[in-house]
Amino acid sequence: MITATELAFAFGDRFLFKDVNLKFIPGNCYGIIGANGSGKSTFLKLLSGELKPDRGEISIGAGKRMAVLAQDHFAFEEHGVIDTVIMGWSKLHDVRAERVALYEKADFSEADGIRASELEAEFAELGGWEAEAQAAVLLSGLGVAESYHEKLMRDVDEGIKVRVLLAQAIFGSPDMLLLDEPTNGLDLDSISWLEEYLIEFPNIVIVVSHDRHFLNSVCTHTVDIDYGKMRMYTGNYDFWYKMNRILVQQLKDQKKKNEEKAKDLKEFIQRFSANASKSKQATSRKKILDKLDLGSIVPSSRRIPFVGFKPDRDVGNNVVRINGLSKEIDGKGVLADFDLTVNKGDKIALVGKEHLAKTALFQILAGEDEDYGGSAVWGQTISKSYFPMDNTRLFASDLSITEWLQQYSSSEDETYIRSFLGRMLFSGDEALKPIRVLSGGEKVRCLLSKLMLSGANCLILDEPTNHLDLESITALNEGLIEFDGVLLFTSHDHEFVTSIANRIVEICPGGVIDRFTSFDDYLADKQVSALRDQYYHGHVIAEI
Length: 544
Known about the structure:
Elements: E1 2-11, E2 14-24, E3 29-34, H1 40-48, E4 55-60, E5 66-68, H2 81-86, H3 90-103, H4 110-125, H5 128-141, H6 158-170, E6 176-180, H7 188-199, E7 204-208, H8 212-218, E8 221-226, E9 229-234, H9 237-252, H10 258-276, H11 280-284, E10 320-329, E11 332-342, E12 347-351, H12 355-365, E13 373-378, E14 384-387, H13 401-406, H14 414-423, H15 440-454, E15 458-462, H16 470-482, E16 486-490, H17 494-500, E17 503-508, E18 511-515, H18 519-524, H19 526-536
Parallel strand pairs: 3-7, 3-8, 5-6, 6-7, 12-16, 12-17, 14-15, 15-16
Antiparallel strand pairs: 1-2, 1-4, 8-9, 10-11, 10-13, 17-18
């Protein structure tokens, strides 16, 4: 068990949080949520001992092992991949290293023999003989091919390093596992594997993530950092979010009676409990709603942006017809004889591991790349707006946010322009900030303002959830569900894809899979799985 008592931490005169009293119990997974800058990662550093609290204390059971997902991706450059994983359990790694060094001695003495006997016993007791095999299983589950297992960390790219460090954290089933954004850099297959692993993990997991599907899949509790406080609630992120929305709505209407409030909340809890009882998580753990304290739940102070896309014109029957599209990047073909007909009402998610191909396709469709073979013919009723994954060039000026957005409007009414910025939480002097100094999340919110302002009836979005906080992702998610135009998009956010898309297209090295279905059904389709194996067989898949 981990216990935080009267914990407080400040940067200068500003307290991130204070008077924190929490207990983390084995068998549960705790998701830490809060606005950007609220102190989520800082709290993990306090638990791990990397930072010291200004007051209060953190108590960890004697003899318990804590593992932390390393954030320095280049800290193990001189070590092998398998060795780096095993280093996650320092006790086993030290015994293993001493044992190897001892047997390599040229002048092996009687004392060395006695020490070797002690090490052999300890090595066996710690499971040392199975360590390399277990490390290999973790790496494979996280999408690290066997061809990388014997390499040095300096010889693999950063995408592989991220996965190796995640395997390092979970190696040896630590008593306490602290994970800060563990799904970053993982593809959907690897995220799914990690979810299954953590659902069955018997000890304490404390995780910070912007991936809602991941939080909903693995978390039994939610810890919200707000008002400078930390409050723990039973249930996953969706439960907290929907409960919070009910409370916020009821606060807006002061005429509602407490009895009505309690009735609405209890009805919601009953529905949630009925659904949760069917899930693997609920059946593998105790019922998490039994001890829910309604009085402990307070509405969040965080502002949630409004995202709504209203097309200026209805979509006609002809959207875009793509024939024989081919594209090379640095002499390598990323698209070859690609065909696709997009229909009215389509919300297409481009999925899979061929990320260069997806981005190349979007750049061609958006009119930003004219160096390709084949054709892409748009219907006369279609107006399109593009959200690029790399937006650097769009913000390379000294314009203010308002001036920047003004470029994309035929209206000179500043109040009209500011109304779109206000929806994305740029109000007052915030709208006058120079775009050069914006954070990644602020740039994304600017681009979403641009898309809303465009009135386009076809949106092309390349990883639009990158850099956004949970509230903004949820708002964008809801806005795209309501959007009645055509949508082509990519995202690593499982919830985002499965709740929006009605058609899935996967570009594989050996062909294209195109299904009119939801993403969850696509993943569960055995015929699709067999076709993917066929298309990928014999091809080298670029790691991410």
